[in-house]
Amino acid sequence: MTKLSDESLPHLPQSIARPGYDRSRLRTGIVHFGVGGFHRAHQAMYLDRLMNEGKALDWAICGVGVLPSDAAMKTVMDSQDCLYTLVLKHPDGALEARVIGSIAEYLFAPENPEAVIEKMAAPATRIVSLTITEGGYNISDTTGEFDAGNAGVAADLQPGAVPSSVFGLVIEALRRRRERGLEPFTVMSCDNVPGNGEVARKAFGEFARLRDPELGKWVQEAVSFPSSMVDRITPATTDPDRTLLADEFGVEDAWPVVAEDFEQWALEDVFPQGRPPWEDAGVNMTADVEPYEHMKLRLLNCGHQALAYLGYLSGYRYVHEAVRDPQMAQFLLDYMDREATPTLLPVPGVDLGAYKLRLLQRFGNEHVRDTLARLCAESSDRIPKWLVPVVRENVAAGGEISRSAAIIASWARYAEGVDEAGEPIRVVDNRRDEVMAAAERNREDPLAFISQQHFFADLSSDARFAQEYLSALGTLHRSGARAAVAALVDEA
Length: 492
Known about the structure:
single chain, 492 residues, alpha/beta, five-stranded parallel sheet, three-stranded mixed sheet, 21 helices
């Protein structure tokens, strides 16, 4: 068994690919917040691909952890010289493993915020990228405004405060660059948020304005915030994944990443301080990300939500199990064809029919073993940003909404915290208490859940949507998730 490190790279088994470049020559050009599985399976992978072609060696990544839970990643990255293994699981069961070397260092902000700030303020840093989750931008889904009352934000806005949030750290680094006469770095969001570039601009610009109006104006006008669409199914790493890597490839890796064999990245090409030649690694550099973004969020991400709660309540625990149920698969296709697709913009170079069929194949990859519980987590950050806009557009256009209403009703039923067998459901959500409190009232006040205005605004007052929602919730309570799915499939 070979423990992963720089020293052990030459001694790894031939079955595992490894960096073909000299990592001692790497120079940091990107600082990335949120070094989780997705970043390591996606953005860091693309950069590693370029480096193996002898390119972008001055664009290595400095990872940053902000949350207390990121201390574990710091420990692992330090012990493995920031190396990790990416294992791709193909639909036919084939495994493909590669050691990724594009992350050169990792900083834990609670331990040394000054080091993080100075790393971003350094002239060599030209991009600061983000995977801080859908809820990490602190923007209200209802009002679209930045929440200045957030505890972490309020603390960072106190005079003389040592920055602890991503907003405080990034804005302090930008302030120092401005003070030192350096051009600002580009802030690149890679989260599943509609218009993520503009959302990031609003969030960081508003924080800067609250700190100093002149600084806020400069951030809004001088800093580039490109939008992006990112796509690769990346389940959370499990102990069986570690064991598989050890057994199949002879590598001891404390935190490998497993992912499907599909990848996609569309990125707005607005990088005033330069960028890696990502197009050489397969990235679609474009002037307009929105069509790609809508396609992915409303088909893949909303498709995941269509399977998540209904599948879990039906007794399934893995995505591939749910999508192999013929009625669940038909429900998903009907949602994509009849509710999501009418809201999409034309997507250059993409056959939507083929894309949707490919989604079914991806969801059905049993070797990825993506859990429905993962898809059910953090719903309050997902449903309002991904599915509610589909509902609103179809309500305005007189389009179909019954399946979207059923997905929301299934979230409400799931949030009751007990499945159809009477077993407890572990609801994972950063607004868990209020979501579950609303769900507890489902039977006495069936509109209570969709009356949460910060998630749904005034949707509960739309008679057609309310009726569709009540119908689905009633079926879920009386007959269960399978019956609710069957009723909608039969109607189609």
